Amino acid sequence: MAQHFKYKDQSISVGDTIRVHQEIVENDKKRIQIFEGIVIAIKNRQTNRSFTVRKIAASSVGVEKIFPAHLPSIKKIEIKRQGQARRSKLYYLRDRIGKQATRVKEKALKPEATK
Question: pTM score > 0.85 for this model?
Answer without folding.
Answer: no
